[in-house]
Amino acid sequence: CSKSGIRSVSSFGFSPILKTYSSRAAAEAQSSTFLRRTSYRMMSSRSIDQNGNAETSTTTTTTMTASVPPTARREEDRFVLAGKLAETEPNYLAPDGKPLARQSDSSPNALLDPPVKVSDPYGWLRDESRTVPEVLEHLNNENAYTEHLTAHLSDLRSDIYQEMLAGIKETDYTVPVQNGEWLYYSRTFEGKSYKSMCRAPLKDGWEELAKQWDGSMDSPILPGEVAYLDVNELAEGKSYCATGQVRPSPSHNVLAYSADFTGNEVCQIFVKDINTGEIIDHDETLECYGQLQWGADDKTIFYLKMDSEKRPYQLYRHVIGNDEPDELL
Fold it and tell me: For residues 99 and 92, what is the distance between their CA atoms, to the nearest angstrom?
C-alpha cells in the first residue's frame, strides 16, 4: 500500500506458509492444503487511539474449546492514518524511528493531505515477532477448531496423500549440469522430506554412466559422487527449513548458501569448506535476502540486505575471514 501512503490497513491474512522442496514434501503439502489450511501468517503494525497516540493492547482472552468457532475481538476505535503527517506531530515516527506513513519514491501520486483515518479493528492481530500471547492463543484456537471440524476427513486426507505419493518416484535425481570440471545435481530419497545436493567429477560418457544407476538409495549416480549439502541434515531440530541460493566458489572448493529457518523469507548465510565439511564463515546476527553471488575469488561474497518491508534493498560485499564491517556498495 505504499503508493497510497497507507502504512498498514489489512488484518492478518490466512495464507499457508508451508514450503516444500522434495517430492514427499510436495505430496504432504498438496494433500493437506486440499483439506485445510495448515498455518497462518501474521503481519506487524502499530495502532493509534482516538487521540492519535500509539497504543499497545493488553486485553486478555479465555481459551476456547475446539468445538467452538474462535472469534477475534474487534477494537472499534482502532485505526491507521493514511496520508501525509507533519514531522512535528507526536506520532509522525514509528517505534523504529521511521515515518509512520510511507510512500514509494517513484510513486506519482501525492499523499493524502490532511491524512485520513482508516478503520483497523483487527490490527492487534499483527505480530511479526510471533510472540504476543493473545495472538498466539487465537491462532492456536483457530488451528484446534480446524482440526476438530475436519477430524472426520482424517482417513480421506491419508488416502489422498498415499495416492499422490504412489505416483511419485521418491528416490530419484535431477539431470547433472556441468560447472567447470564438475557435474552438479540433487537427489531425493524415499522417506526424506528434503533433497541432498551432490556433485561428481566430469568424465567422458557420463550420460551413459548415469543410466546405469540401479535405482537404490545407497548407490551413487556417478562415480566419485559427493553430497556437499544435505538439506535433511540442515533441517534437523528445526521447525522450518528452506534453502535460498547454493553456490560453489570459483575454485569449487568452498560453498556459500543461504537458508531460512523461520518461514519469514529472512535468510542467514553459511560458507562451507566442501572438502572438510566445516562451516568456515557464518554470522548469526546477519539477516539478508536469499540471493548471493561469489566474486572473482574464494574470499568475496555479495549479498542483499532488506528494508523494513522485507524487500531487497542494499548490496553488500563480504570478505571471508575479515573482521571489518561488510562494505555497502
Answer: 6
**Is pLDDT above 90 for 128?**
no
100 DSSP assignment: S
Q: Is the pLDDT of residue 248 over 60?
A: yes
Strands 172-173 and 54-55: unpaired
203-226 pLDDT, tens digit each: 999 999 999 899 888 999 999 999
Report how far residue 140's alpha carbon sits from residue 147's, in angstroms, rounded to the nearest whole number.
10
User: In which residue are the cell numbers 505430496 written?
Assistant: 27
Q: Is the pTM of this model over 0.70?
A: no
- The predicted model gives 190-201 an average pLDDT of 93
Note the maximum CA span of the chain: 76
Secondary structure E strands in the chain = 47-48, 54-55, 79-82, 116-119, 172-173, 177-179, 182-188, 196-201, 226-230, 242-248, 254-260, 268-273, 279-282, 292-294, 300-306, 312-319, 327-328
Q: Give backbone dihedrals phi and psi of 77, rounded to 5 degrees, phi first.
A: -90, 0
Q: Three-state SS for 271?
A: strand
Q: Cis peptide before 114, with omega less than 30 degrees from 0?
A: yes
Question: At residue 206, what is the residue type?
Answer: W
As a whole number of angstroms, the distance between CA 290 and CA 242 comes to 10
Give me the numbers of helices (H) and strands (E) for the chain, helices first please: 5, 17
Residues 171 and 216: beta-carbon distance below 8 Å: yes
pLDDT of residue 179: 93
